[in-house]
Amino acid sequence: MLSEPPRDLPRLLSSAERLMTRRLAAALEAEHCSVEEWRVLALLSDGRGHTMSDIASYALMPAPSLTKLVDRMVSAALVYRRKDPGDGRRVLVYLSARGRTRHRAVSVPVQRVQEQMLDELPGVQELADGLARLEFLLERGPEQVRAER
Q1: pLDDT at position 144, please?
Q2: 147 — pLDDT class (breaks 50, 70, 90)
Q3: Cα–Cα nearest to 135, from 127, 124, 125, 146
């Protein structure tokens, strides 16, 4: 175990993310599914409608690229759009029955990749917990973190 954090933590995080995404993309290739499409399916699988901005944030995509992806997914009958019942100005995106079937199918290779990582890297759950905490702290910004100290 390292006694001090690596000096170039941002680079290490970026490199690990790229390598993991490549591994995930290779597993999804057989299903003709992109990592971005998987992320959209995964978020919408909760059964709730989500705004495009929520989906873009979760899928780590710029809004214009997400719009094109969601348009393709609508054309493939994987998702559909509806007005938000609470705010008619907003549109929510939902997973269709066909989308749920696709989500189940592509979940298999994704789960396999994640299980491989769990098997290959002792302490990966602690790492995931630490990364979730890091994400939480980074989202809050330095002013909020300092105020809590």
Answers
A1: 57
A2: low
A3: 127
Greatest Cα-to-Cα distance within the chain, rounded to the nearest angstrom: 53
Is the pLDDT reported for residue 145 higher than 80? Answer: no
Model confidence at 1: pLDDT above 70: no
Residues 124 and 118: beta-carbon distance below 8 Å: yes
Residues in the chain: 149
**pTM for this predicted structure:** 0.81
CA dist., res. 17 & res. 20, Å (int): 5
The three state secondary structure string of the chain is: CCCCCCCCHHHHHHHHHHHHHHHHHHHHHCCCCCHHHHHHHHHHCCCCCECHHHHHHHHCCCHHHHHHHHHHHHHCCCEEEEEECCEEEEEEEEECHHHHHHHHHHHHHHHHHHHHHHHHCCCHHHHHHHHHHHHHHHHHCHHHHHHHC
